[in-house]
Write the structure tokens for this entry.
Amino acid sequence: MEKLADIGVVGLAVMGENLVLNMESKGFRVACYNRTVDKVDAFLAGRGQGKNLVGCRSLEELVASLEPPRRIMFMVRAGAAVDQLIDSLAPLLEPGDILVDGGNSSYHDTTRRCADLEKKGLLYVGAGVSGGEEGALHGPSIMPGGNAAAWPALQPILQAIAAKAADGAPCCEWLGPDGSGHFVKMVHNGIEYGDMQLICEAYQLLSQGLGMAAEEIQPIFADWNTRELDSYLIQITADILGHMDAETGKPTVDLILDTAGQKGTGKWTSQVGLDLGVAIPQIAEAVFARCLSAVKDERVAAKSYLLGPEGTFGKEGGANKGVNADKDAASFVKQLEKAVYAAKICSYAQGFQLLRTASMEYGWNLHFGDIARIWREGCIIRARFLGTITEAYETDPELANLMLAPYFREVLAGAQAAWRSVLSTAIGLGVPVPVLAASLSYYDGYRCERLPANLLQAQRDYFGAHTYERIDRPRGEFFHTNWTGTGGSTASSTYSV
């Protein structure tokens, strides 16, 4: 009798197909199914030919081909498609069987599905998978959370196929209950949005601000990738800038239309920041930057009407009359490297603040050192300094903000002059740097002992009797002032959303 499969995978698009090949290469027998059955046949006749795979042409056949307790991972589009698949699979399964959603589902949906399936005796896991096509094939970062009873059966497979850090540790660890895994993946993607936009702003400062060509900028990013900014996104940026279009001989990046797409996880992260009352301005600004890029025709038209500086760094001309003409380009590039690193630290600090608040709000008990550890390899935001973030949270698991860790405090202090100078230059040149600017505002706001919210509360109390707390009275006591002399003493109820 033929051996039953160790795990089943539903969905043979790019990620699903490569995960199947990854699992098979690690010694697992994999059953695969796709709603469009022709894809199963094409896969087995192509990349899957001669491998230890079981091609299934129905969900019934998939379930029958699996060793109990059945482990089924699906890589399908988030939303209704996941619910439809679960509705079709659940009646075919037995108590103790495991369903794993490896897509980018909303953590709210995952929480709901965990509860619903637990009532039927089924174990549900939301496992964020990051690394793109190459990661899925050679080793992604995997972020599982949900019904913990499923982990012993999943751990041998998921940790085997995950990327391995330099110390050999798999970039996959159990994170927590219900929607925690998909929440961590969502925040990962939000940080990814901020990182990408930050890099793009550095590129624009060099191209538009310094007037450098792509082939001149390429070695700068390649050089940055040898130091603290060493990361996957910096590496691929250097690769992109060095790529020439075969048809025209021009840099390929110069031929790409400047309108960015998005699939929603950055937007979700920004919305959750608002819902939980956590300041994540860099992630939100990165989302808004993509939205602004989408109105290309409006921006082209606005160029003729909205005036601004037109000069280039160190050169006379335009409204800026030679902004920073006393500086040389090489000095500016060094400053820019420090500014980008400082902004990157702030971005990750905001992401971990969101994780910290969600962990408390939902009772997940997330371990932030583990999260940083599984992001060290395989995922899109993998970077050298994630090892330092891991150490920071291992040293102080209750760290209130990543910026307060000794190493990051020192880096941010050392970057001050360069960080502020780069922003001053960008403003003088009229080069938009929303994420870079938001990073410094966040840093300055977090270190500000007294913000102008006292005036804001006075305004709210003036027009809406929303009350305020006083610095000379205990926290939790609220007061109202009859500002006009004609208002009453009745105050509005006190609450925060």
Summary: The first helix runs from residue 14 to 25.
